[in-house]
Amino acid sequence: MTLYICLVLYTLVLPLLVQDRFSKRRERKRLILALIPIYLMLALKATTVGSDTAGYKRMYDSFFYASWSNYDLYWTEHGYETLEMIATHIFDLDFAQFAAIIYAFICISYYKFWKKYSRDVGYSCFVYICIGLICFDLSGLRNALALAIFLLAVPYAEERGFWNGVKFFAIMFIAAQIHNSAYVGFIYFILIRYSLPKLVYLAAPFATLAGKRVFAPLIKGISNKDIAGSSFGGNVIFYVLILVFILVLRYLWSRENFDSNSSKVTSELGTYFEEIEMPMRVFYLAIMLLLFSGSGSFTRVANYGLFFSTILLPNACVPLNKRSHIMVKCVLSTLLIAYFYWFKLRLNELNMLPYLFFWQ
Fold first, then answer.
1. By CB neighbour count within 10 A (0-12 exposed, 13-18 middle, 19+ buried), where does 62 fall?
2. Helix, strand or coil for residue 354?
3. Structure pTM?
4. In the predicted model, what is the mean pLDDT of residues 211-237?
5. Neighbours of 257 (CB within 10 A)
6. 84 CB neighbour count, 10 Å cutoff
7. Which of 62, 265, 348, 352 has its Cβ near the most Cβ atoms within 10 Å?
8. What does the pLDDT look like over 302-327, one tens digit per residue?
9. Does a cis peptide bond (omega within 30 degrees of 0) precede residue 354?
10. How far is Cα 29 from Cα 19, in angstroms, rounded to an integer?
């Protein structure tokens, strides 16, 4: 537990430790320095860390004895099994080496995503840890890899044009060969690119609950997953509170007189609403997916949208004047740390504790 707490505090105070008069270079340094310990925790973990890690290792080791003529050994997707065959038969990598390479790719994808979309990259890493996304990455290697591929496709969804759409769907198809939850990316495409009428967002919770009752028997028949009796629990409640928190910030921003520094920041970043509108739409969709599926394994499809909280929360704080910025961040950081401790560390979600290195 101590290691996780140290990582949280490190990402929180990192902006105070890294100073540079050139803002782009400063943010790049902060992002690299924040991602290094995250990568090391992901890549160097023992197989006991993460509820699925030991199973992934057993499956990976069996591919050493598989043949190229027939390597469809497990229920995992063909694309991921192909990666395992390449790693075991061509490069002769053990599981720790294979995982280290996969996590390197994942962190590079996070770097590119945060570098492009986040206005406070150090705080993005902090949110990533505290909201619990690191827990999923420690356990679900395939889901984390598919999410990383999805993030590389996001700019193509955001940019208008037919061929950008084609590129997005092509990348998402590749991601779905790693984990079939990536097919939900086709739904996210709509809210990344388009803004829907407000009435749609107001009606969405009622339509979601109604759809849950209608489609629950069908889903149970196909996948043997019972979503009808599932509850969404404290996680969804916390995500809803985050959304309300953002809406309150929007209101405060609209009422606040910016000082000259804040006006300069706003001018450089474009309008405040453009900075948070897209990630807020995608985050909202993730909440609706959780509301529909409850807290079961279907929550993996929501991870794609929940990741956008790592840019939504930092960007929402940017336009506030210095005093408000500090106050809001203190409140928000306290809530996130409390959530991480209460719902993740205390409950040992996905067997993230005790953290051990692979050589221990």
1. middle
2. coil
3. 0.91
4. 66
5. 7
6. 25
7. 352
8. 899 999 999 999 998 877 778 888 88
9. yes
10. 9
